[in-house]
């Protein structure tokens, strides 16, 4: 029987991204999938594009009555109702590390007999995540850092596109001397690309470059873009003693934004910043400001959706073939439920 994918409307009003773009919906339909798309007023792609691709179009939130064999596909949190989740859901559940609301979500799956196929746990044989939003997070995070350094960042932030960002970056007369830490990962590569559009001089540090941290070199840069994935506590990149030190560093763009974790490598900041107030003053003289927005890719909804869908679609093609990525995420659910 055809695999049935049901793409739900995202309940967060600021969430314009989608996990499946119309071109990838078309491709799956050509392969024999049944694709249902819920209407969603804020989604960056028009519903007509999905209809043209051959998808069935339904109203927002109707997934609750979808056939039980349908896979419900989304990005962010489910609405609070129904209390029992009977379907297989593919999305970011944030449910396995004791996060806020995690126990309640798992309980809903337990009661309904459904399954969470969490995209974060869709990993290959080596444990590496195969679908993530990193590149555009790094791109937009570094861009915000450059604009703040140049005193050209306007709040509140609004979803935009790459062309608009690139135009702003190209107008910065004196871009900051920048260090990108975690430069060879997904978000690090995005950051380096944005910085090259700005014409900034960039130092790229990977994991081998920070083992013995060269603090004077770090503080000699005007902008720091943090793109590392960190699981265990290690010596911080910037700490309290550095605030009053003689330094060039003025702006930190913390793409990692793991601000409440024990492994936060920027403990001078312990709270995220927002689209309304993207910048926090950490120290007055000498100046140090931080940007730590945790939903950066939502600021570039089209590019982020295209990139994400390009990585997810091949996985969806093997959804029912016993592929290791799906068995890995199913096992994560089984361990945590
Ligand atoms: N703010 C946001 O909106 C947003 C969006 C997406 C991802 N993220 C976060 O950004 C982080 C990076 O994500 P990614 O997809 O780029 O991950 P990734 O795994 O692709 O890259 C991380 C890189 O960091 C490097 N690294 C680890 N420890 C290091 C150290 N001590 N020094 C230097 N380099 C080190 C790794 O070698 C790797 O190359 C993650 O924590 C992720 O959750 C944030």
UniProtKB/TrEMBL annotation:
Active site as annotated: 76, 94
Oxidoreductase recorded as keyword: yes
Signal sequence segment: none
Keywords: NAD, Oxidoreductase
A GO MF label: saccharopine dehydrogenase (NAD+, L-lysine-forming) activity
InterPro entries linked to this entry: AASS, AlaDH/PNT_N, Lys1, NAD(P)-bd_dom_sf
Top-level taxon: Bacteria
NAD listed as a keyword: yes
Pfam families given in the database record: AlaDh_PNT_N (PF05222)
Binding site for NAD(+): 128, 185-186, 210, 255, 293-296
Any GO CC annotation of this UniProt entry: cytoplasm
GO biological process annotation, one example: lysine biosynthetic process via aminoadipic acid
Family membership: Belongs to the AlaDH/PNT family.
UniProt protein name: Saccharopine dehydrogenase
Lineage of origin: Bacteria, Bacillati, Actinomycetota, Actinomycetes, Sporichthyales
